[in-house]
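# nightly structure sweep
# worker-07 picked up a monomer target from the shared queue
# config: single-sequence mode, recycle default, output format = structure tokens
# input follows
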Amino acid sequence: MEEIIKDWGYIALFLYSFGGGFIGLVVAGVLSYAGDLNIYISIMVAGVSNFIGDQFLFYLARTNKNYAKDTMRKYGRKVALAHVMMRKYGSKVVFVQKYIYGIKTLIPLAMGLTKYSFKKFTIYNIFATMLWATVIGTVSYMMGELFLEYIEEYKYYAIAFIIILASLIAYYIKKI
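# output follows
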């Protein structure tokens, strides 16, 4: 199993981070603590992929407005929340959206539909991605010890906790 993680872990992290990456980076941080991955490479891989993914979504919306609008129509309330956040936070929304599951991919699409500067988005996205990858990667690495000890000692409680947490997140996302 360790060889599979070492051989394919960064590729899986790259692919997962293209569309979001929060959970993938947390898992990579814990695996890095366990010695299966390197935290610095994990942060870099997740950051680069996340940056490229947001740039792609912005560019897609800018060059193919009909497709972006059709895609966004499926997520009515989430799109409304994205627009409220854009009005309220302005350019800072590029930083904020990295941490909010459910609208992370909608913000670049929504911004791409507006007259927002591609250059300005790129600059904000670079710094937002670096901050996001560093914070999430570092915290998850530091929490790796606690997590691994907890899992070993309380296996069954941990499984129940993960199932309950995943259910609550899914419920929350459907409510948005």
